[in-house]
Amino acid sequence: MPPTLRVLYAALALLLAGALPLLPTSALAQQAPELPQLRAPNGPSGALQERIQILREQNGQLRRQVQELRERTTRLESDLSHIREQTGTRVEGLDQRLADETSSLESTLALYMRVGTFVLILLGVFGFGYIHTMLRDIIERATSSHLRSEEFSRSLSEKVEQVAQEARESILEENKEETRRLTRKLIDEFLTEERSRIEQAVEEEQNALKKLREEHLDLQSPVSPEAGAYLETVATAVSDRSLDLLTDDELYYAMLEADSKSNYAEAERYARELLRRHPSTADSLSNLAWILEHTGRVEEAEAHYKRALEAGPARADIARYYAHLLESLDRPEEAQQVLGHALEQSPGDPGALRQYANLLARRQQPEEAERLLREGLEANPEDPPLLSAYARLLWALGRWDEAGERYRQALQVQPNDPALLGEVAEMELERGNLERAVHDVSALLEQAPDSVDGMMLRGRINLQAGRFNEAETDFRQALAQKEDRPGPRFSLGLALLGQGRHAEATEVYNRALHLAGDPETVRSRGVEPLRALSGTHQIPEAEPFLEWLEGAAHPAADTESEESEASEQ
Predict the structure, then answer these.
(1) Which stretches are transmembrane (predicted)?
(2) What is d(CA 408, CA 535) in angstroms, rounded to the nearest whole number?
């Protein structure tokens, strides 16, 4: 290679070596045109110099572009720092605003939840319409009393409406357990004051049921007024309902109520439904037997009593009912056997002992009756029915003081028992102790102001004391309380006779004779009281009335005798 050309190549290499570090390879690749491949020139050196000059110009342009890029990068870096500061400040402000909005939203939501929960609880207790009206009334009162501004009241009303509408479903779905808990708490608080009354009502109902089951078949112990009122309430509630919808207790109560009103067909319907449900139980069989006995179908009643005893051989109460039926059929020996067997199965049963002793006393076996009652009292020294039964036996034997002592012992256990007070007053009246009788009958009527027996007893005391006008008042009150019966009519006629009001007495006696169904009633309620009172008081025209009443009783007795003879033939 010639020296001149070697020098030119070296210079070109130096120029290129100085330009390359100023630009990145990529920039050179993008902006610099592709250099032609150097070859040994065939032309003169002027062409080469021109090419070198072009390259120099291009290299300068590239340097300027690189400088502009560097300046732009510097400016961008400066702007980026400023933008970062502004963005940070703005983000912090947005974070604070978001936190404030979140806190406000949570507070509002909590308020909505509490208000909505309260509204839903009230909705469950009182109903939506009532709560809506109540809340509206609260807002109107607040507005009218100027406790809140009009704008606030309107806003509150809208908010409550919105809460009641929007929060109801969400609260029910998301807070069911909380709603239940709050509802139970509210109900418990509401029932706190009522709990004792409810428990007392349940206890009274259970006691009434127990007492009814003890006495409903015992014709010597009528249902108490309280139990009768309860039966009336239950009967009213079940009268229009299907038998299939009634519980066993409701059927039982309805049966008792229907029987007490002599509605035996209805009572039998309830009893047979109980028997259909429980075909082999002693209670169902004895209930139906009792109703059949009242309807006069004694053979069917006896058959059901026997089945009841087979189902419950240790049931002394059913044995007592069956014995009562047998005694009413004039079969006292069989009744005595039934009661004796009951005492073997249930030794010391007070009810069976009492009934057995009464049966023995009626069969003129007072010593055996007294022995049984003493044995019963040794086991149950404070049993009022046993004490009163023993007192009645002593009374019948004329042992007044002992009878009075037993009655007083019974009254110590049950001082407010109307039936017991009535027995004591009856005994004192028979003894002629009117002052004591008045005391006892006053206590009776204080406990049972509507007691017909108490009114009748007070009227008889007034008759014995010669207070005929007061006796008339008592008997008329008894008739107002009770259906027209011959007993009160005979007593009223006697009070009118004592006052010399013969025409009125005649009319009342005629009504009593019409109601009397047998001569024994005429004798015991009409003839004997008039004869006894005329012996102690001056009764105008007592004799003509006695003759009239005795004459009215004899035809009835003759007719009864003729019917008895005809039936025997």
Answers:
(1) 111-131
(2) 31
A 10 A CB-CB count for 413 gives 13
- Is-contact 530 546, C-beta < 8 A? yes
The secondary element (H helix, E strand) that includes residue 64 is helix 45-126
CA distance 262 to 285: 20
Q: What number of CA atoms fall less than 13 Å from residue 303's CA on the CB side?
A: 4
How does pLDDT run across 433-490, given as a tens digit for each residue? 899 999 999 999 998 888 888 999 999 999 999 999 999 999 999 888 876 788 889 8
Token digits of residue 53: 């000059």
Contact 423, 392 (CB under 8 A): yes
Nearest-angstrom CA–CA distance, 59 and 533: 161
Distance CA 512, CA 509 (A): 5
Q: Coil, helix or strand for 448?
A: coil
H helix runs in 261-297, sequence order: 264-277, 282-294
Cα–Cα–Cα angle for 262, 267, 272, rounded to 5 degrees: 155
State residue 288's pLDDT score. Answer: 92
pLDDT lower than 50: segments of the chain: 7, 17-42, 119, 122-123, 125-132, 135, 139, 142-143, 146-148, 213, 216-221, 556-569
> Residue 556: what pLDDT?
44
> For 367, what's the count of Cα atoms within 13 Å in the CB-facing half-sphere?
0
**Residues 6 or more apart in contact with residue 290 via CB below 8 angstroms:** 216, 217, 259, 271, 301, 321
* Cβ partners under 8 Å of residue 332, min gap 6: 326, 359, 362, 363
Of the candidates 258, 179, 182, the one whose C-alpha atom is nearest the C-alpha of residue 216 is 258
Query: Nearest-5° angle of CA 456, CA 357, CA 407?
Result: 45
CA distance 338 to 322: 8
Q: Which of 516, 211, 138 is nearest to 491 (CA)?
A: 516
- pLDDT value at residue 204: 61
141: exposed, middle or buried (C-beta count within 10 Å: 0-12, 13-18, 19+)?
exposed
Residue 133 CA, chain-centre distance (Å), reads: 29
Rg (CA), the chain: 56
Give CA–CA dist 515/511, Å, rounded.
Answer: 6
Q: How far is it, in rounded angstroms, from Cα 537 to Cα 529?
A: 12
Looking up tokens 């709050």 gives 182
In angstroms, rounded to a whole number, what is the distance separating the alpha carbons of residues 281 and 408? 40
**pLDDT for residue 245:** 79
